[in-house]
Amino acid sequence: MKLKCVSWQLSENQKEHESEGLSSKHLVVRRGRPFKITLFFKDEPFSPLMDSLVFSAQLASAVIQTDFSPPFFPFRHVSAFKWGGQILSENSWSQSLRVLIFTPPNAPLGLYNLQLHIKSQAQQHSYALGNLILLFNPWCSTDEVHLSHADQREEYVKNDSGILFMGTPDNLLPRTWEFGQYEEGILETCLKILDMSPQHSKNSQKDNLCRSNAVYLSRVVCAMINCEDDRGVLKGNWSGDFSRGVSPSQWTGSADILKCWERSQCRPVLYGQCWVFAAVMCTVMRALGIPSRVVTNFNSAHDTNGNLIIEEFYSETGEKLQLSKESIWNYHVWLECWMSRPDIGSEFSGWQVLDPTPQEKSGGIFCCGPCPVKAIREKRVDLFYDVPFVYAEVNASVYTAIVKNNQVVHQSLDANRVGSLVCTKGVNSYLAQDLTAYYKNPHKTPRRNSSLHEEARSMSVSLQLDKVPVAGQSISFSVTVVNNCGTSRRLKEHINAQMKEYSHNLLETFWEASNMIKLGPYEALTIEHWIDPSQYEQVLRDDGLVNLAVVIKDEVTLERKLASEEFNITMPWISIQVEDESNIVVNKAHSAILVFHNPFWVPIDGVLTVCGSGLIQGKVQS
């Protein structure tokens, strides 16, 4: 008996395995769920009395091999945690056989070669049936990445587009992103990322075996998204000079980045920043079958010495100074992946923080996590991985000082600013889902913000934006000063407005003002201010972030008080109008109108980039 051909039943299998569209080259199935193939024989039909079939599943050129022989119908028990098979054909003498193949829910992920050995009397014939890709299976209750809610599986595994949130907690700026895991060749590129890792180069057999474990695999991927230790995907750049590559703000999806890395023989793509790192990793993890979501932490601390204190310094005129090695980013973007954690205790299973942005080393490599979100909330800094670092990102306090001639003349402590909002895209929604309570216990007594000098209570200062600033319009805000003592005061007001980058870097001052103020005993005064758009339109950056600060100084007692606000200037939306939506036909060109209004009084130039997963081949730029 000889084999004629094999049918992989691609449509049926990939529909049942929720893997449609992931690859046009290979059958893609998920572990822990059986798949079917049909064998067609030449000349002689299959005889269960005289012929036997032995299948061999090989991973990575026989580095891992498992043999199994499917019993004939009726069904016999097959171990859930071993490879196995079952002949389904009811006709015992047949030119074709349908075979059900079982994969264990803890099998290593990867590209397998399936072989068939036919034993007929004294002869044996061996056939290479072809390759299949085995993925994690969130639909399988015994897989360590099992996610029970169907709508969450649709969002966190199958959805190939999403929203990343930037800006500030009071003015979220949604940024669309095409994850693109269904783009041609992306799944194969994701597997190549694993093969290019230092772990694979050092010991490929051990690495392939360990790919059954989501914790291990997620750390490998996390380190490979940046290129600090390996032939990773992205090179980070926060200098502002992107002349040798692509500005991070120009990327609109992951597929272009992954394809560029693969085409360049695995040289790092230039450039990425936190949201790009996280979004690309999200694509890889979703493609491999691990539920993932991109998360933004607003006012994210980078605590280098572990004391949970971030220092900020201002001049007497309200200019923010770069005197500290530590920093607070307006927002920082990382990834959460869903998996069990038997290594530290099942109570810490669930969402895990993974941060591919290269900040600090973990276990000798630039990666972060998986760090259980529950461990952050409970301050379990003894657990793997990197809980102390992530805990500080959402819980550090901010020490603020006004300095004059290298001397501190005022200081205060803010215990609530860092981690003020943690959010992600909602399931089946374009709105933000607030995750803050999962990271920080809302039932704990709020930590009081305090001045480190009690005499500062004799005067209070606050700064309030009148409305969300919009590009091309004035920035209007008010400063309120309250005299809390029984004597009159002669005060001087200094206000400073600086452009800044989200990653803490301060840019030039674009507006400043000063005024004299007189306050009677226990008097309160509110002063209105406006900044004309002509003051900022020439220096406005991608994020439109502004640091606005006011310093009030008592001319007699020399007491000083600081209030500050960081906000973003909102740019106009691009309007997309699809013509004649009811008559859109597959594989036929269709028109859309894009409208952008220039909010400034001066001409602007730039690049309009249009992309759409499944709609446009690559990008259209003009």
Automatic annotation (TrEMBL):
Molecular function as annotated in GO: metal ion binding; protein-glutamine gamma-glutamyltransferase activity
Keyword Acyltransferase attached: yes
Gene Ontology biological-process annotations: nervous system development
Keyword annotations from UniProtKB, A to Z: Acyltransferase, Calcium, Metal-binding, Transferase
Keyword Acetylation among UniProt keywords: no
Active-site annotation: 274, 332, 355
Transglutaminase-like domain residues: 266-358
Pfam families to which the protein is assigned, alphabetical: Transglut_core, Transglut_N
Name of the protein this chain belongs to: protein-glutamine gamma-glutamyltransferase
Origin species: Scleropages formosus
